[in-house]
Design brief:
Layout lengths: L42 H14 L4 E5 L21 H13 L4 E3 L4 E2 L11 E5 L20 H9 L11 H24 L7 H37 L10 H4 L7 H10 L1 H27 L3 E6 L5 H6 L4 E9 L9 E8 L13 H16 L4 E3 L9 E3 L9 E2 L21 H5 L1 H13 L7 E3 L7 H9 L5 E3 L13 E3 L8 H9 L4 H15 L6 H11 L8 H18 L4 E5 H4 L31 H12 L3 H6 L1 H17 L9
Parallel strand pairs: 1-2, 1-14, 2-5, 5-8, 8-11, 12-13, 13-14
Antiparallel strand pairs: 3-4, 6-7, 6-9, 9-10
Helix pairs in contact: 1-19, 1-21, 5-8, 10-12, 14-17, 15-16, 15-17, 17-19, 19-21
Amino acid sequence: MLVRAINTNLYKNNGYVNSLNFTAAKQKKSQPQTNPYGTTFDEERAGEDIKKALEVLGNKKLELIIHNASAPSEAGKDVGVGSLYSESSKDILIPFLEKYGFSGVQVDPEGMRPEHDASPYVSNSFVYNPLIIDLEDLTRPENGAIIDKNVYKSIVRLNPAKGSERGDYEHARDSFDLGITNAWKNFKAKSANIDSISDPVERDAIAQLSDEYESYREENGEMLEPYAIYSILSEKFNNDYYKNWPQDVQNLYNPENTGLIAQIKSQHQDDIDKFIFTDLLAKNAREKGIEAFEEAGIQTEGDNPVAFSNQEVWAHPGAFLKDYKMGCPPDNDNPDGQAWGFAVLNPAKLFNSDGTLGEAGQLLYDKCEKLARDNQGGIRIDHIVGLIDPYVYKNSPVDNSAGRLFSSPHNPDLKQFAIPVNKPDSAKKFGAILEDIVLPACEEAGLTKDDIICENLGAIPDHACAAFERLGLGGMIVTQYHNGMSARPSDTIMLGSHDTLPFVTYVNNLYGRHGQDAFNHALWPAVENSLPRNATHDEKQEEFDKYRFDMNRHQPEVNKQAFKEKKFTELFTSPAQRVQIFWTDLLGMEQRYNTPGTSSGNWSLRLSSDFEKQFDPSMLIQALSDALKAQDAKTVKENQQLIDSLDANARAARNENGSTLNVRV
């Protein structure tokens, strides 16, 4: 969640500055090479080579980061936002990922979102996001034909974002409400008169869906009921923030007002049933979509937001501190801190005196267990320090009330929760939430530590780092901020995330806005990390001098292209076993997906239906070839044919994509 500005001094403290020799070295002329593979890009061979290279490099995992709303839609099927579980995704995205050796997809938190907020990081983890449902799929007889085709066609026809690179959350939300209302009406009518359905396929589908719905309502109705009531009250008061409601319903569950709850249920039972039905449809859409990914050898990984939604806080008021909110402390990049406004779990309600889970602990356990069970490829845990020692405040991250929840003994309100930071058992105590709640929940759902990715970006106090490291969990290495060689095998490495600058923009800023020294200080470790580990200083210096930035040798496009290739290579020479690439970085896009602290345009950028035409695979292919070349001599010799094949395809791809830059000389 925490984003930092580009640090032009990033590498000054890592010993690189003293290594730099800004005197240009004499460049060697390249020797002409023959190409036994021809000059045409071979797509099939490229995919096979990528998979082989990943295997040689230690069975590294190559994964794409993409959120549901960014998934592509085929022509005539765009409803305003994408879904990774739609027919369009199955037809367009999955074949692309399979072709280029991706074995995983990191998705967004897939919970129900606020009415006017498209951010997945404020969603309800207990209710599926209805927008992942493939509406077209529900027009088919094999799914009961519960959405009328004319309703679906109207939704597509009226989409104002049709053909745009950005989705339209407001249209999609309203359209899905129309579509699901139509589905609920038809489902009730058909399930009440199954024998009157003439099409046997449709009749069997309705009978099966009816049985599923009854079972789902029986198993999940009690858990979903408060959230259904929240939805009903949001519509009644035309506001989906409970603190703007009348006092009696603001505190409906504080304590539980059984009389008023019964009254609401009696008046709105059909709406509650529809809510549960919608959740079932979303669950079914996910499961069907995940099957399509798994058939292609691709696993999906979920995302566990640190925030609890307004619905969750309203329904479980005793689990949270009354006055405090979670955010980030002030620093050089954010002097006012970051006021996220997230609710804070009540430490006194995490564990009971006998060691069992208290109200807050059980809520967190249930959240993690559900997300882990839904995502057998693994889960990402957002803002891990928020589960170790969150930064909390009352009114502002810079007021006197603010501080770390478990390490502020001088704060009158927080001292009751303080844990000594320098005791032998400090790391265990600070890691108790992870060790005794989060990890057991994930293990109960069938995951191991290796399946968990922890977002540990930004400033983390030393005592929190110690707690994290004690548990042996893998973190994230974003190479815009960190040297890739600092990664551990358990870590996940990436060029950037959904919160960072696009990789292309980062490079352009580094070269232009921040200037000569910033680019060169970033170039040196990129060179070092893309060469064999036994490369001499002179060899590194020679490679560095080819692409360094100075006013006497100002060749920005060549320099930037070389830097990009070396940063891609670093992903695969790093010790990290899991490599993730955000989808805009894979396509080399400059548009930003999310700018923290702003609202306009965020979360809306999408893949086009013909996105593969924008994709130049040469960067990925060349990076893998160069990563193989950086291995020990025995590995290079044994895989020379694979390296030659990758090089040939990278050259062909560059040529076919119109690139006049060939820095691989």
